[in-house]
Write a structure and sequence with these properties.
The chain is of the alpha+beta class. It is globular, with a radius of gyration of 20 Å. It starts with 11 loop residues before the first strand and ends with a strand.
Length: about 300
């Protein structure tokens, strides 16, 4: 139940990242759909560098919002979901970011802003899984919806040129990926559902709730965001200049061969321990470095309306 009475019009809360450059009148778009569907005046909250969405989502619930719409990229979506997970208030998506990975994995047309708003106010509700990631260095629990990773993929996020990102979008990640291809593996121990699955040198460990990343590349071919399972991809390219070709071949073959350049696993909990600290990312946001994280599936914890 929300704070609104049964006779008052429903109200949507919009949590928007003002740093995202958009070529539409977001306030006008939201107002139009609220009027057309008999909703009250929307509540507006802007994120900041200090608070990228968590505090605003809490304020939205405190003011009785009937739906909280994340208007931004995957970072804004993740912060709003952190507050709404486990509750009854649904989340809507107005994809304004570079990747918009959750929206894309849900099959949304990320250029159809009218469709996104209509879906948020009058669409169908569905429940999806969320993943809780607890680090021990520092001791911190965060939530993610799409993918987290340590190693090479997180280094890409850390080294992506923001100015280039604004100009060419997700292709900026390709630039960072090429520049960071050279590098040394880190010895990792990966425990899945209490059993050691990997204990060797790797370049990247990625844990996914969805299958696709930037450019439509499918990292986790078996991933479903409502199956209650985490999907794990371990990348360990062979030595030499052609080492990454073994990773590409392994990903095309979806890890079915005997080559250990790419290995896939599934489970409900994943614990990653590195020999030394390496880059760490959640849903495309670089979160510093760490050497230990425990990721736990929280099935059906978030309600989406779209």
């Amino acid at each position: 139940m929300t704070a609104n009475s049964s006779t008052a019009p429903q109200r949507a809360a919009i949590i928007i990242n003002p740093a995202k450059p958009v070529d539409i009148d977001v306030r006008g778009l939201v107002a139009k759909h609220c009027v057309e569907n008999g909703w009250g005046e929307p509540l507006w909250f802007e994120t900041t560098k200090e608070d990228p969405g968590v505090g605003q989502a809490k304020d939205a619930l405190a003011q009785g919002a009937d739906i909280v719409i994340a208007a931004g990229g995957d970072g804004t979506v993740r912060c709003v979901a952190e507050v709404l997970s486990g509750g009854e208030t649904p989340m809507g998506l107005l994809p304004l970011g570079t990747g918009n990975l959750l929206a894309r994995n849900l099959g949304m047309d990320v250029t159809d802003y009218d469709g996104a708003m209509a879906g948020a106010l009058t669409g169908t509700e569905r429940k999806i899984d969320v993943v809780r990631a607890r680090r021990s260095d520092p001791d911190q629990e965060q939530l993610f919806l799409v993918m987290a990773g340590v190693g090479y993929d997180a280094t890409i996020m850390a080294d992506t040129d923001e100015k280039l990102k604004h100009k060419v979008g997700w292709l900026a990640y390709v630039d960072a990926g090429i520049r960071n291809l050279p590098g040394k593996p880190v010895k990792a121990t990966i425990v899945i559902d209490g059993k050691v699955a990997v204990h060797r040198g790797v370049r990247s460990v990625m844990v996914g709730n969805c299958g696709k990343v930037q450019g439509g590349l499918e990292i986790f071919p078996e991933a479903k965001m409502d199956d209650g399972l985490l999907d794990v991809a371990v990348l360990a390219p062979h030595h030499g200049k052609l080492g990454w070709l073994s990773v590409i071949v392994g990903m095309i073959g979806k890890g079915r061969g005997k080559d250990t350049a790419v290995e896939y696993f599934q489970g409900k909990t994943v614990e990653i321990t590195l020999e030394h600290k390496d880059d760490y990312q959640l849903d495309g946001d670089h979160e510093g470095q760490g050497k230990h994280v425990l990721m736990t599936m929280d099935p059906g914890a978030l309600t989406l309306r779209m």
